[in-house]
Amino acid sequence: MKKILIQLDTDKHPSTFDRIVAYDAGVDEVLSYGGITPSDVRGLVLSAVFTRGIPDLKTIAVWIGGFNVTLGEQVLAEVQRSFFGPFRVSVMLDSNGCNTTAATAIAKLVKTYDLKGKKAVVIGLGPVGLRSAMLLQQEGCSVTVTSIPPELLGARYNPDIARQSLEMARQVPNLTVEDVPDRTALERCLEGAEIAIAAGPAGVQLLRYDFWSKHPTLRWLVDFNLTEPLGIEGIKASDDLTERDGKIVLGPLAIGNPKMKVHKACVAKLFERNDLVLNIEGVYAVARETV
Model confidence over 124-162: pLDDT tens digits? Predict the structure, then answer.
């Protein structure tokens, strides 16, 4: 019986990236739907579920993608609400690659180093930054997340998005959230920190080389930004737990390559049973086994 993945993408055009990776992960057929909203979900999911008997439902799975992570989470909730009794299939959320990216980076760190009890600062309140913060908390770190100063974003600064991001971050339990007005305030948040994660938008430099290279307590640096200039000045995108100026650096290419392995491993795992839900916790468990 063929393995069928139902691709629910909140963007107008379903991601070709996600579809190709699904085939590379061993899926036989991908049914792709774009422009998905929560109201579209129930009919699409149940009409697929009812085609096969309960023992064969593990051959069907749902993938949720698209740029809008908040909308993706709403779609995931609606998918789960559509199930009843044994009539369910496995489902995964990875809107904008947020779960696989964050999970891969943190898994690489904790596989090599003991981070328990360390102080971490995540710069950037987007989905990847917040998920990285939650995983660091799970590993026993004390975590602060900060906004990105308007002066660093320049014309890209949007006060409405900044406000919404702060509100979302403040909903995460036990997370310290700092709204920083300028670079000086941002750098002050890193006092005593041992881990710094740059989770800003593409092409925005967040940490100056002169600052981090001389920082007395920083030991680990992680940068998710592949577009020049990188988020952390003076590192290389290919840095793979590389030592620079006494710090251990993980660059975006060294995250992106194993992220692909995690992505494929997650897709394959969806077809092992019919009741798996892979959100950040589930994806992180796969990443810990994969990287």
Answer: 999 999 999 999 999 999 999 999 999 999 999 999 999
* Structural domains for the chain: 4-97+258-290 (3.40.50.10280), 102-255 (3.40.50.720)
What is the rounded distance in angstroms from the CA atom of residue 256 to the CA atom of residue 65? 17
Which of 281, 278, 276, 286 lies closest to 88, judged by CA?
276
Residue 286, φ and ψ in degrees, nearest 5:
-65, -40
CB 281 within 8 A of CB 76: no
- Beta-bridge partner residues of 139: none
Global pTM?
Answer: 0.96
Q: Is the distance from CB of 68 to CB of 10 less than 8 angstroms?
A: yes
Please, are residues 198 and 223 in contact by the beta-carbon 8 Å criterion? yes
H-helix or E-strand containing 64? strand 60-65
Amino acid of residue 229? P
In degrees rounded to 5, what are phi and psi of residue 104? -65, -45
pLDDT tens-digit profile of 34-81?
999 999 999 999 999 999 999 999 999 999 999 999 999 999 999 999
